[in-house]
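Folds vary. Our protein:
___
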Amino acid sequence: MPAQSEARTSSPRDDAIRLLARREYSRAELAQRLAARAHSPEAIGACLDELEAEGLQSDARFAESFLRSRVMRGQGPLKVRVELERRGIERPLVATALAEAEQAGEVDWFELAAEALSRRFTHPGDSPRERARRERFLASRGFDFEQIRHALERLGAEE
């Protein structure tokens, strides 16, 4: 019971600040979390506008942070793009975050695909079935055909 009464007395801003203190959130994620705490849509909208104006919440910053975390996990650009869009980040902002990371040299998707593959498999596969298994692995990680092909070629060259 104390948690419910606390939720009713705390403002959307207090709840949002508490959430943002732990990690970055997209505007859509914050709106969902605040709505779950029974704040009115008008109060949520006003709060999120204020936080954005103050620089405390930024979808661009969230996209950069999310991208870095997914690169560290060895995920490819297709999966990262879908995940960002699912979290409410608009397509132009997603494209910008991916392009800026590539231009800044923070990520090389071809190298990342090769690294992910070499961590999981020691050779490209002797049979078409084994090769297809490696292709599916990388595809499920969000890499495109060219990146998969590069990773398989590189793994074959290392033998």
User: Anything to note?
Assistant: The chain has a mean pLDDT of 90. The chain has ten helices and no strands.
